[in-house]
Amino acid sequence: MQVPWDRLGIPKQHRQVLTADAPVKARLAAARGLLPVAPAMQLAMFYVLLNDGDPSVVSAARASFADMPEATAVGAISQRTHPKILEYLAQVRIEERLLMERVLEVRNCNDRTVLRIAEYADAALCEVMSRNQERLLLTPTVFLALRDNPNCASAWIEKMQGFLRMQGALPQEPIKPAPAPPPKAPEPAPPPVQPTAVAEVEAMLAGLVSPSTYVDKAIAEEIELFDLDFLDDGPELAEGEIDPELAGFQLDYKDEAEEFNWNLLQEASGGEEDQEEVRNMEKIINDMPVGSKIKLAYLGNGQARRILIRDRNKMVSGAVVKSGRMNEREVENAAGNRNLDTEVIRELTRNRDYMRKYQVKKALLNNPKTPVAVASSLLKFMQFKDVKDLAKNKNVSSVVQMQAKRMVVAKEKKGR
To answer: Which of 59, 146, 168, 236 ranks highest by number of CB atoms within 10 Å?
Structure first.
């Protein structure tokens, strides 16, 4: 099984400790959390070592997963945490509400994890999940899991149902298999007999079944048989499966990006884009359900993002902005896009990395969709020539234009 080191966030200097060639003592130290690394990296290391060939290392990694303090585990989880680590935490620490709430905040959290949390959620967590509209679109079947959870209030169920129906994403009830026909009654056994040596010999000479085949229970208890149960080691685990107690959890690194075509995920290498390919991509994306569009917004490449940010559903275009994967040019274009919903613009301004760029601030100020309060706070960062241009721009809010005019007048008076 190939380990995606970069995706797990484990740097090269720490990988050699986790390989099969490393000394057992070194792997045990990593499995016990004794290496001086951040908790986020510890979680990744523990997960890798769950597949170690030494049972003592696997046991130590399991114990470390279970024993990490909840507050530490909550702080270790981020938007970059691998979905399989989150899934494993949901298997072994499902009763820790704060931890599960943090797991749900990770946008790339896979469907299996969300459905398991929905199944075991208490009333407070049910309410949190019922209000998370983006997650409901990403995993519509979570509605069915919450509906069947006795802790989920009927009012929340009705709101979820109404929202999903409005979005055209209400999941259908799974088709239940037809009940199996009742088993046929077994043929009645011959009446028990007391086997004797004479009866055995007569049966043998006549070619008949030995009468001892039909010994009753009382007689059977007196017959000593070999007990071979001790030879049974129990069912072998399938490849990638850890423990029957983990409800079939697969120890692998598969995430849900596999559902998308590679050309939606792989970043272009540069050069002019094939317009026919772009049109095909637009058709593929436009035919997707809303939940798949949101998921692709977090996982897709630049071309997919450029298509999705124009989507009429503000939850889809907002997911592109929240993905944190937009490059500087994409952010600048989005900041000046007058067709984006105001909430999407507001989401863009919440990202500190985006807002460090001067051109992004300038584009936002000249975009009439930018909330007035946000635009007013950006004026102080503008160069004087851009403030003068803004004072003449009739396409922006009158409030922002008036503030820019006042700044120009004050600057000119000061310069006299």
So the answer is: 146
pLDDT attached to residue 279? 87
- Cα separation, 244 vs 168, in Å, equals 37
- Token pair 């937009």 is found at 326
Of 132, 139, 125, nearest to 159 by C-alpha is 132
**Which of 94, 86, 36, 44 lies closest to 64 in space, CA to CA?**
44
With contact defined as beta carbons under 8 Å apart, do 377 and 354 qualify? no
What does the block give as tokens for 94?
A: 């499902």
Name the token pair of 134. 């983006």
Asked if residue 93 belongs to a domain, the reply is yes
Give the residue, 123 or 224, on which the prediction is more confident. 123
Question: Does 399 reside within a domain?
Answer: no
* 308 neighbors 337 (Cβ within 8 angstroms): no
Q: What is the domain count for the chain?
A: 1
- Residue 198 in this model has a pLDDT that exceeds 80: no
More reliable by pLDDT, 221 or 270: 270
What mean pLDDT, rounded, does the chain reach?
84
First to last CA, the chain: 73
Structural domain includes residue 287: no
Give the bridge partners for 241, in sequence order.
Answer: 250
What is the SS3 assignment for 213?
helix
Q: Is 412 within the bounds of a domain? A: no
Q: What is the pLDDT of residues 376-401, one digit of tens each?
A: 999 989 999 999 999 998 888 888 89
Q: Are 117 and 100 in contact (CB under 8 A)?
A: yes
Asked whether the beta carbons of 42 and 49 are under 8 A apart, the reply is no
**Host domain of residue 42:** 5-166
Q: Give this prediction's pTM.
A: 0.72
